[in-house]
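Dear colleagues,

I hope this message finds you well. In preparation for our joint manuscript, I am sending the RCC1-like domain-containing protein (Paramecium octaurelia) sequence together with its predicted structure, so that both groups work from identical material. I would be grateful if you could confirm receipt.
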Amino acid sequence: MNCLTHSGLFKSLWTRPIYRAGNLYTWGVHSLGCGINQDSQGDQLRPRRIDAFNGNVAKVYPSEYFTAVITDNGDLYTFGHNKYGQLGLGNTEEHQTPQLVRFFRDKGLKVTDVALGSNHAVALASDGNVYTWGNANNSFLDQLQGKASGLGDNYQNNVVTPQAVQKLVGTPKGKFVSAGINYSIVVNENNQVYVWGAGKRGELGNGCSLNFKYPELNPIFEQLSKSGYTIQKIKSCFAGTLALLNEGIVVGWGRSYYGSLGVRQQEYVVTDLENYAPTPVNLKYFQPNEKVVDFDLGYNLSLFLTDQNRIYISGFDESYVPRPIDLPQNEKILKFSASNNSYAILTDKNFYTSNEFVIPQQKRNLGFLFKSQPKELFDSGNIEQFGGGYRVRYAIVNN
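The corresponding structure tokens are as follows:
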């Protein structure tokens, strides 16, 4: 980590917007959790409003196979696949429409943040505890194959209702959670980073390839914290993670599919696919003194927004290091999302999408952008949030 150096107090020219709650629209692969109960199992080709919510959706997190929604009053809803109890409903029945996770409401708790792995979930609640549920990966075959669990305890069976991670009870309150295929990450208010689960591809960012059944402090972030670095945002997708540190530094670790983490040092050279320690994103193609103020990570690509109102893309086997996206200079970038094989950018004038972000039939190269007005897609121009790193995408809209 010698390449991380102080560059003075980081002052962003761009401030992250304060999101309001709104109505939920989803689209994508129906069977993976679009929240729509339909007779046909065909894909949901265009954005469609979910009737279960009435302007009260605050946060959405779609994973590979299921989706979680937090409402403005702190309730948690889930829908999609449920073979391992990953919906947290106390059963293993699949639900195509949103279901209230009654555990938290019954205990008088509000959910403040949530993250989903492929088949498990991790959440922060108002009592200060970290809760997990879903696949325990504890069968004989799982153990023989060296599979780990993102649950944080040594469960003998899958967990179908949320359970507090015992090793974290009494520790400082969590600030961020993140989760990938079989691992979980919690950043607490003391800027400590706890990691557990699968680590063979560097997913835990702790410098090794071991699996951990229980939460362990990440020693590299312990050292970075002593040097004044703190995590401002973190997101995992499949087997990779990106984190935005103060001073405009972005680091990535884990598996960099198709160059998705932007940390490779040479383009077109298939090396450093797996990163076992936080590695700075390659800023070779950024403008001098340009600082990253936000990012988003999808299955096979990432986007980086700078304080100069420029956005860069890395991944999708087209660019292994960040490259600028050509947008009109007179349009202010408001929001953006990296997804599976595609991305979207909202400016103060237009809504730009690539490939199949909105309509699955749209497939060209990532450099071709479809331009539209939000009202054409969502019956409103007031998009509060949008995203989806895998094959289900969403938008929170005020209309």
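For the figure legend, we might mention the following. The first strand starts at residue 23 and ends at 28. The first helix runs from residue 102 to 106.

With kind regards,
E.M.
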